[in-house]
Amino acid sequence: MQELINRAKELLADGTVARVLGWKKGDFVYNPEPHIFTSAEELEKDFVYDGFCGANLSKYMIRASKMEGKTLVFLKPCDTFSFNQLIKEHQVVREQAYIIGVGCKGKLDHRKFQEMGLGDIESITGINLMDECDVAKVTTIYGDKKEVPFADVMLERCHFCKTKDHQIFDEKMLGSKETTDTEGDRFDEVRRIQAMSPEERFAYFRSELSKCIRCNACRNVCPACNCLHCVFDNTNYDTAQKANADSFEENMFHIIRAYHVAGRCTDCGECSRVCPQSIPLHLLNRKFILDMDELYGEFQAGSDTETPGPLTAFTMEDPEAGAGLERSRG
Amino acid sequence: MKKLSMNDVPKFLSSVGAAMDLFVPVRMTGATNWGVWDKEREVDLQTLKSVKSPKDVFFPQCQTMYTVSKGEDGFSIDPMKLTDQPFCVFGIRSCDVRALTVMDQVFLADPVDTFYKARREQAILVSLACHRPAQTCFCSVFGIDAAQCDGADVAMWMIGEELFLEGQTEKGNEFLGQFSELLSDTDDTASVEEEKESIRSITKKLPYSSLSLEGWGAGKTDEKFDDPNWQQLSDACLACGTCTFVCPTCQCYDIKDYDTGHGIQRYRCWDSCMYSDFTLMAAANNRTTQMQRYRQRFMHKLVYFPTNNNGMYMCVGCGRCVDRCPQALNIVKVIKTMDKGREEEKA
Q1: What is the pTM of this model?
Q2: What is the pLDDT of residues A189-202, one digit of tens each?
Q3: Are A250 and A210 in contact (CB under 8 A)?
Q4: Domain extent for B286
Q5: What does the DSSP 8-state code read for residue A96?
Q6: In chain B, which residue's Cα lies nearest the Cα of A24?
Q7: What ipTM was estimated for this complex?
Q8: In angstroms, rounded to a whole number, what is the distance separating the alpha carbons of residues B117 and B53?
């Protein structure tokens, strides 16, 4: 971690960048926050990068792009897909960013510690990028000590990591480690739900989506949700809504959002990470990704800054309008 | 004092649930929230904090106030019926009970909110002491006792395989009398005292228990409003409503109409000061940046509310925002940062 701080200080000192977008230590090891650092002292005192720094900083670059001078931003491999996609959508300015592609050995999910009764973490070792990140050694405020396999407390998305290669960067620092599960792929859960009867599937989504409190955290964290004024916030239309008036709206909000980001969603998994109700929202996006892959050929949003997305390009090979309907009739 | 074996809890809840509406923490697909008891639902008395507080038992996130419908003789207006039957809230925590006292300042002050008042009057509160408070808890800062809830009708402790229940009000004693079948008398007050002692000693040692509110409170508007720290504190805020919606004391709401096609449903729903159209007026909005919205939330809790309510803070230290903010911002960071600023100034 110190080398990240040193490098950031150098780039600040020589004027390459005007500020540093990274993670700031929290009160507890599991709550670091995204932060803009402007001085060497601040970096030295508060900068952190470890297993709990799951936040994708790409979206903050929309705002930082408009600031004077370059912003140094630390991006994990998965975050660089979002950054590329934001370039493609003209939301960030490449030249305004100095990207340090920072290594990743998987990111942790504090709720998984909580479920194991280990949420009140007093100290934890084995989660820094210098560590193997195989086992986290936890001590709680209640004196419970436990060694937990990293994989048991990792965010879902890290089990199906797309790649540990950065898609865009100015320089790279710290090594990564493969975290992808050896068995299965990221579409397994989608296929499982697809195989359900319509009644089962409806019950499944009701049990998940009925927890929704319409806090909009999924939307606001999503790099693909970059509308200046969301239709659900626009009081000029009846679509504006602060609460789910009924169960129909709970479902529709998420389905509409998934449609809107289809073809642009990089599957970064932030929606599920931030959901206070632990709704696996990424599954809706993955369903669309799987469908598009099958209908238009494999495509990964954000793997470059030019290729048009499957839904924004036209080719003679595109399936006919009725293809989706035919598929659904199976 | 009464005793109930944990094995008998489902039976006990069945008999209460058959006699009245019964609200309990319900576990569903990985999250615990308050809901109406039903024998099919998984009651969860183990999880310390529900995601949403039990606030919406009293002040629902979405609530129809009246309907307007068009008939042959013109329009008719039908107000929604007020709660007029007793109901039970089983397993509520001390912080969440105090939060009701906070909301009372708003909803029971003139003009009285009749929907809220009716629910407050009909509710029988059965509290559950916090066997293992979390690292993120700081109720003691606000003088709340996690070991015994003084605002509850019945105080309850979970000790090993048994629940101990003690009536604290007439209503509470009546409740215990009504459902005495599965309860047995006990004079084992020593176990309860031991449990209380243990909770209080844990609470004292929690990392946030020494949080200082010096510098906050009534009359501090001028000191805090222009503090330069607000900008960096709010920089990472996503402007989502998580903190406001999981908070047991946030009580701002919006009133909207739902067009049913042949009438109007006028309803109210929780609002969030994090949202861009919060307090939007015809002439536009008085807060245009996220920093201003962010500042509003904490100034309301730590300065404006105490100013208008004899020093009472609009926070009970439940720590839900600490736990749930997507980007790890929260009220404790605000309190501490400004406190630091003050200390540095002094030095």
Answers
A1: 0.94
A2: 999 999 999 999 99
A3: yes
A4: 221-250+271-346
A5: G
A6: B328
A7: 0.93
A8: 18
